[in-house]
Structures are given as C-alpha cells and as structure tokens.
Amino acid sequence: xxxxxxxxxxxxxxxxxxxxxxxxxxxxxxxxxxxxxxxxxxxxxxxxxxxxxxxxxxxxxxxxxxxxxxxxxxxxxxxxxxxxxxxxxxxxxxxxxxxxxxxxxxxxxxxxxxxxxxxxxxxxxxxxxxxxxxx
Length: 135
What we know:
This protein is α+β, with helices and mostly antiparallel strands.
C-alpha cells in the first residue's frame, strides 16, 4: 500500500511540475517586448540630445570669444561622452562653423552652423542645424 502512495506522490509531482511549466510558457508570450518599436526613434532622440547640449552651451556663454576658444574642446567632450555611452552601437561625426561677428544676431545667417552624422548598423543619419545665441 505504501508503494502505491509513493507512486501516486511521484505522479502528482510530475503532473504539477508539467502544469507549472505549461502556465509559465503561456504567460511568457505576454511579457515579450518588440524591440523594433523602442529603437525606431532612437536616432531622432540622440540628435535631439546632442543639439540640446550644444544649444545650452551657446545659450549659457555670454561672449563669443570665450566660446570660440573652448568650443572645439566642448564639441570633443560631447563626442567623447557620446561614444562612451553609445560607442558600441554608433559612431558620430560633428562639424561646425562658428561666426563670432554674428553672435547676437537673431536673423540668418546663424552664428553657429552644426552638422551631426550618426552611423550605426546599415544606417547613416545626418542633420544640419543653425543655432542662435539667446540674448
């Protein structure tokens, strides 16, 4: 009689483990993430971040000669920090032209012309921006 109880116990345990496995597998389909959706706008978000940092750098600098002397270093800092964070996925190229004679201008041509190029697996996204100093 005890041998039958042991067999019934083992059969019950195998049945319960099977049921847990089946429920777990059926619930996994509701927890998967489609990765194409979150990464679809990543390039645009990265562009926005880079241009925002450059724009804040210009807005917070009162004199252009102060910016002109250190602007190249600031662009290298932006590029370095970007590559530290996204270097495995992206490569970045930043070109700019700073015109201090137009520093406080509010009409074209802008005091800063900025070109950003992001390259990743099979994609090359480029953007050109005209940025003004906020007086």
